[in-house]
Amino acid sequence: MMNWDDARFFLAVARCGTLRKAANELHVDQATVGRRISAFEESLGSKLFIRTPKAFSLSPLGEEMLADVMNMENAVQAIARKATSGDESLCGNVRIATTDTLAEAFVIPALQRLREQHPQITVTLLTAVNISDISYRGADLAIRGARPDSDELIIKRLATIEMGLYATQHYLDVHGMPVKGEHLRGHNLLMFPRELVPRHWSSFCGETLIDPNVVLQCNSQLLLRSATRNGLGIGLLSSFLADNDPELVRILPENQDWVDIWLVLHPDLQRAARVRAVVQALETSFQNYPQ
């Protein structure tokens, strides 16, 4: 009979690909992860992973088990949420999943106000560029730039963020100012990888691209801003990040790209007082942004 304690070690290695990364995720040492995986395989009488010097990949049995173990994880998390769904105490931890950019501009200021009002509430902040189903990551709520297609989650639009094209004055002195309608030909572009934001590779803030000269692909907007500030090329950045940056110049200001920002919440948790307090603080933070 499989138990969750075994399954969570299997799931961590399957997601991370190495014992070291899985150990960091589980907050244990690497030897413990290796020992637990070996014991789990021995109890099943079959290998779950194909080991190479660089990584662990799933064996045929591991691939068959993965979806079932993920369902097991979701069930465990659902039980935990329901156990605290009616909690009226303004204390405890809330796990928020969002992007590094939104965390810096909106979530951190919200948490500062939250600490003043409810100092017994703590937050675990999980940042990534592309937030998938929040139950997969074990977060209580997510703030993301893509609306999930789910009837099982509470979804609310927090804001619509403006994005634009930016570069340094030095870059423009060397390469010239782009001309509208000329597809940014002759310019160095700094972009999210195609698999993350495919629409930018055909229309970069309203400019149709033809064989674009992409000199840097990066999955962090904060690092794209840094690359833009260092003169590597033209970046598509959130206006709240770039408009007040003295190092950056707005290019083709009539070109705008708009992104809706969504709050996604597990319905099991909407009645928990600590979660309601966090949501209220986040809504207040986003209300300060022009809609």
From TrEMBL:
InterPro entries: LysR-type_TF_proteobact-type, LysR_HTH_N, LysR_subst-bd, WH-like_DNA-bd_sf, WH_DNA-bd_sf
Annotated HTH lysR-type domain residues: 2-59
Top-rank lineage group of the source organism: Bacteria
SUPFAM superfamilies: Periplasmic binding protein-like II (SSF53850), Winged helix' DNA-binding domain (SSF46785)
Cross-referenced Pfam families: HTH_1 (PF00126), LysR_substrate (PF03466)
UniProt KW Secreted keyword: no
UniProt entry keywords in alphabetical sequence: DNA-binding, Transcription, Transcription regulation
Similarity annotation: Belongs to the LysR transcriptional regulatory family.
UniProt protein name: LysR family transcriptional regulator
Lineage: Bacteria, Pseudomonadati, Pseudomonadota, Gammaproteobacteria, Enterobacterales
